[in-house]
Amino acid sequence: MKNTLSTDLNLLKSNFSKYVELTDAAWETISSAFLSRDIARREFVLKKGEICRMEGFVIEGCFKVSTTDQEGKESILYFAAEDWWLMEIDSFLNATPSELYIQALEDSRVLFISKSDKEELYTKAPEIERLFRIMAQTAVAAWQRRVVRNLNWSAEKRYSHFLDTYPNIAKRVTNKDIASYLGITQEFVSKLRKKRMKEGK
Amino acid sequence: MKNTLSTDLNLLKSNFSKYVELTDAAWETISSAFLSRDIARREFVLKKGEICRMEGFVIEGCFKVSTTDQEGKESILYFAAEDWWLMEIDSFLNATPSELYIQALEDSRVLFISKSDKEELYTKAPEIERLFRIMAQTAVAAWQRRVVRNLNWSAEKRYSHFLDTYPNIAKRVTNKDIASYLGITQEFVSKLRKKRMKEGK
DNA sequence: CGTTGGCTTGAGAGGGCTCAAGGCCAGTGG
DNA sequence: CCACTGGCCTTGAGCCCTCTCAAGCCAACG
To answer: Does the pLDDT of residue B197 top 70, yes or no?
Structure first.
């Protein structure tokens, strides 16, 4: 919780620059629409059933984006640490009740933009529309790859892939949450972990 | 293979209208960039490793969009019948080799747009950027729901959900392809089907 | 009419689950 | 500051869902 707003915005700017190049004018317009907010560990940014009216970009900390079924079993869609986006796209886009929970796993800081401000940005600067179009298309490709992994990879392979791909996340979240992300039980994660140890980490 | 180009375009127009309202001028610009093409059963529109330079909208027929792992095991990402889009978003967006195959399961007709024409549309009409932004965001939400189903639903539940949700597709494709879509074996689909019969359809 | 591919069925195996118990640590209230 | 509580992690036993392998049947096709 030590950085200034301007350093926070730099992180956001460099995230955008992965997708499009923004003019200074466009960046001014965009950046002024974001507000910084601190979120305490365990606090919910969004709960199932609520209408999502904000999108957030994580500056510091870590979140989980999850849902639950009728029996209360949790599935984690993704973890969002620094440089990730927090959004419930469906609820935000269509103003329908959210299917998802968004909860802080650590004390965190997030740059938020409201739905109305974002709509305004779309009309003010066509680059924004382009930016979010490309971000969404990139996300679709990523979700497709996730589906393929879940379709034909074993739990062990998914677990290894997770550790290899997100070592930085794996260190910070509980095994139980990793299990919910992978679609397996906490107990089985524990056994997979033990097996990895034996095989020389 | 009996409709005229203009009826084909009407189907495309009404697909777009699910996402945004287009002015007549924008629609003129867009529609003129699409070309109709017939595809024979079993023909590949795209193969793994190729660069994807076209996006297609299915007017008639049915396709599967799939990938294979090292051992040659196939995973089907989705089926695309009438009123669906055919795209390898990652390869199209970034001009990288495709991870996916796109193959016709029936004799089909598709409206194609080339990458360069689409890029041109983005600059010509801002509504197009908006249209594809919303389409992509809607797709992200749909892929997320798919992931949740694969994370904590049993094969039986996924199979029933598929039959209930896409009865029109289920009738037209092989059990083997349904299995690849659901991430289970062909043999097990056969057993699930038998079980459903016994339980009174 | 032989071949190929899809569908079915069965036997056996295994990956991953459920349930239950115990240890450990962090947070909380007295 | 300590006892208590609840949540997380581990481990084991037993089980079930789903897979693999193998065989046989049938329709489509060259």
So the answer is: yes
**Residue A59 within any structural domain of the chain:** yes
Which position has the higher pLDDT, B4 or A119? A119
pLDDT-based confidence at B1, cuts 50/70/90?
very low
Rounded to whole angstroms, the Cα distance separating B104 from B123 reads 32
B33: domain range? 5-124
Q: Is residue A89 part of a domain?
A: yes
Residues 116-175 of A with CB under 7 A from strand C: 154-156
CA A95, CA A89: separation in Å to the nearest integer? 10
The total domain count for chain A is 1
Give the integer Cα–Cα distance in Å for A118 and A129. 10
Using alpha carbons only, give the angle A176, A179, A185 rounded to the nearest 5 degrees.
Answer: 90
Average pLDDT, chain B: 94
pLDDT the model gives residue A1: 46
B194 Cβ within 7 A of any nucleic strand C atom: yes
Shortest Cα distance, chain B CAs vs residue A76, angstroms: 8
